């Protein structure tokens, strides 16, 4: 990858709060991210997708909640999310709301981490009855964080994966909803300048070696 490509390519981070492997939550997060990347490509905008499974940093998330500090792999994930040009956030629905792991990760983010960031929401559950969680739980959460939330959010029930792309009840197919949501996110991202690498606030600090040698 050239330096120019690294600066201009939009970076999309897809967060999956699925707890199992394989996970329909990860599958939806990946497909939403890929749809956004494809839509950006149609507009002549390079984009890169990285899928992050929060289950891999579940223990560090708990540690950060107890200590107030994120370290190691969790710190890397938080940095990626904070510096992303867009975030896809997908959670399974538990007890009519987002998963505890999903909320715990959001709780360890800085309150300004997602301010103004384009965000596409998604959720998975056993039946379509759980889809209301997108509007009564997820959307208010990201509105509080001042994220720029896409109008279309995508819920995928178990039947959506087994219906070969054909939804019941006259609703659009899951693939069509994913494509529409990806296009909406892409339009928002394409209209903005790429964020580029965040400045390191400690870059100018002298090293211990230079202090001891001076």
UniProtKB/TrEMBL annotation:
The keyword Flavoprotein applies. Residues 11-160 form the NADPH-dependent FMN reductase-like domain. Keywords: Flavoprotein, FMN, Oxidoreductase. Residues 190-214 are annotated as: Disordered. It comes from Sediminihabitans luteus. One of its GO terms (molecular function) is oxidoreductase activity. This is FMN reductase. It holds the Pfam family FMN_red. The keyword S-adenosyl-L-methionine does not apply. Gene3D superfamilies: 3.40.50.360. It comes from the Bacteria.
């Amino acid at each position: 990858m050239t330096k120019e490509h690294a600066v201009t390519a939009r970076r999309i981070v897809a967060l999956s709060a699925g707890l199992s492997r394989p996970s329909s939550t990860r599958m939806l997060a990946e497909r939403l991210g890929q749809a956004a990347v494809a839509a950006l490509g149609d507009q002549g905008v390079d984009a890169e997708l990285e899928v992050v499974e929060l289950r891999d940093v579940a223990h560090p998330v708990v540690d950060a909640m107890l200590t107030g500090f994120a370290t190691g792999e969790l710190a890397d994930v938080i940095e990626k999310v904070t510096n992303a040009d867009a975030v896809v956030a997908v959670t399974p629905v538990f007890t009519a709301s987002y998963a505890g792991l999903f909320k715990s990760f959001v709780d360890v983010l800085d309150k300004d981490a997602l301010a103004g960031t384009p965000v596409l929401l998604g959720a998975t559950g056993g039946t379509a009855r759980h889809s209301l969680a997108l509007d009564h739980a997820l959307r208010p959460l990201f509105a509080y964080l001042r994220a720029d939330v896409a109008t279309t959010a995508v819920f995928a029930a178990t039947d959506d994966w087994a219906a070969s792309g054909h939804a019941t009840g006259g609703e659009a197919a899951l693939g069509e909803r994913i494509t529409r949501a990806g296009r909406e996110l892409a339009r928002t991202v394409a209209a903005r300048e790429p964020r580029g690498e965040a400045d390191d606030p400690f870059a100018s600090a002298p090293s211990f070696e230079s202090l001891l040698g001076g």
